[in-house]
Amino acid sequence: MLDIDAYAKEAAEHRHYLHAHPEPSFEEHGTQQYIIDRLCTLGLDPSPIAGTGVTANVTGTSGSANGKVLLLRADIDALRLTEETGLPFASQNEGVMHACGHDGHTGTLLAVAHWLADHRDQFGGTVKLLFQPAEEISPGGAEPCVKEGVLQSPDVTLAFGMHLWNMLEFGKIGLRAGPLMAEADRFEVTVTGKGTHAATPQLGADPIVAAAHIVTALQTIVSRETNPLDSRVVTIGTIDGGSAFNIIPQSVHMTGTLRALSREDAELGAASLRRIVTHTAEALGTTAKVDYKFGYPPVINSHEAVDLLRPMLEQVVGQENVVLPEITMGGEDFAYYLQQVPGVFVFMGTRNPAKGLTASHHSPKFTFDEDIFPATVSVFVAVVRGYLS
Fold first, then answer.
1. What are the tens digits of pLDDT across the range 313-342?
2. Which terminal residue of the chain, N or C, has fewer Cβ atoms less than 10 Å from its own Cβ?
3. Is there a single domain that holds both residue 177 and residue 246?
4. Domain end position, chosen among 241, 276, 295
5. In this prediction, what percent of the chain has a pLDDT beyond 90?
6. For position 86, which CATH number holds?
7. How many CB atoms lie within 10 A of CB 213?
8. Residues forming beta bridges with residue 24, ordered by sequence position
9. b/e per residue 219-231 (b: at least 16 CB within 10 A)
10. In which domain, by residue range, is 18 found?
11. CB of 375 within 8 A of CB of 104?
12. How far is CA 196 from CA 205, 254, 388, in A?
């Protein structure tokens, strides 16, 4: 454990630097250089990928592992958010913050890279390290990483990723076969009416009234068109329309998201959304245009890979601490790797009420308990040693 503790301390040190120097999606140039410099000091040969990402291979010397290639992924981007944590290593980049744990993911994988370089004799096959840009936006960094061949040369046989999770008790690992996270689609709706004076509504066609009815009607996609045993989410996130209290505007613009646990359900939801928006607007004397974009696919863990990795994870935290997490309707572009190769994405619990570390992800007060680093490093090491043996 003393060996792992040294790497865990290194992970925290990396995290402090990265947290103080956050960069938003596809703008992670300083982060990319930091990662490349650290990997080069380990004697590795890193390469850029997807613009601001980094990849590097580490080959073991303990047998061939039958040609196995393990992809380990960390996301590196931050959010456009003003930090309110008061941490001594708080963001120095105004309006940008690591508010989702990506600094911890990257710090962990850099420490794991060091362990791999020091312990090639403890595994065979190849570990492919991926420091992926732009997880926080759609389209993000995973899809271009796939298109640029991160799963090839050599061909990846298993993908593994981890997310620090403030919604799960500290030290527990959330492991679930099948759907874990949702498809995350986005849409825009423009409702066009006829502007007029607020005192003479009969002379116009009010897009604000139509938009209000549309918002209400869209909730029937969940309440009346979704099997109660399945899950969908429809949320309107923004409404923009009008310029004064006494004017009925010409148009209203809305944006929102639809979430589902399969592409089939997302497509059905998108068709329902278009129908409801179009006909509700028409019924109120207005017109509506829908721009719908399918986003990240759902994260679906391989049943076989979950069964394979479960004892490796239990070895680190104990059987009782590998738990079945709730499915979340949040999105995650690790899904693109799981569409191509078997793999597993897990949650590592970091919620610690005793230390007051309970802020939600994407909150300006978000941070996590760094005492988790021995576990995060140990999990990656256990997967490497267990799979590439």
1. 999 999 999 999 999 999 999 999 999 999
2. N
3. no
4. 295
5. 97
6. 3.40.630.10
7. 17
8. 78
9. eebbeeebeeeeb
10. 2-182+298-387
11. no
12. 8, 21, 70
89 with 147, same domain: the answer is: yes
**Strand (E) or helix (H) holding 24:** none
Query: What's the longest Cα–Cα distance across the chain?
Result: 82
Peptide bond into 207 cis (omega under 30): no
pLDDT band at 144 (very low <50, low <70, confident <90, very high): very high
Cα distance between residue 46 and residue 57, in whole Å: 8
Cα 373 to chain centroid distance, Å, stands at: 20
CA 307 to chain centre: 23
**Cα–Cα distances in Å, from 389 out to 123, 272, 318, 341?**
6, 50, 21, 19
- Residue 265, pLDDT > 50, answer yes
pLDDT at 214: 98
d(CA 368, CA 22): 16
Give the mean model confidence (pLDDT) for residues 190-197: 98
Distance CA(278)–CA(371), nearest Å, equals 52
Distance CA 28, CA 260 (A): 30
Q: What is the pLDDT of residue 166?
A: 97
In this structure, the answer to whether residues 237 and 382 fall within a common structural domain is: no
Token digits of residue 17: 């630097």
Cα–Cα distance, 126 to 120 (Å, whole number): 10
Provide the 3-class DSSP secondary structure of residue 136. Answer: coil
**Residue 44, pLDDT score:** 98
**What is the model's pTM?**
0.93
Residue 26, token pair as written in the block: 């596809």
- One domain for residues 172 and 199: no
Give the E-state strand segments of the chain in sequence order.
47-49, 53-59, 69-75, 126-132, 158-169, 173-174, 178-181, 183-192, 196-197, 232-241, 247-248, 251-260, 287-296, 299-301, 322-323, 343-351
* C-alpha span between 379 and 116 (Å, rounded): 13
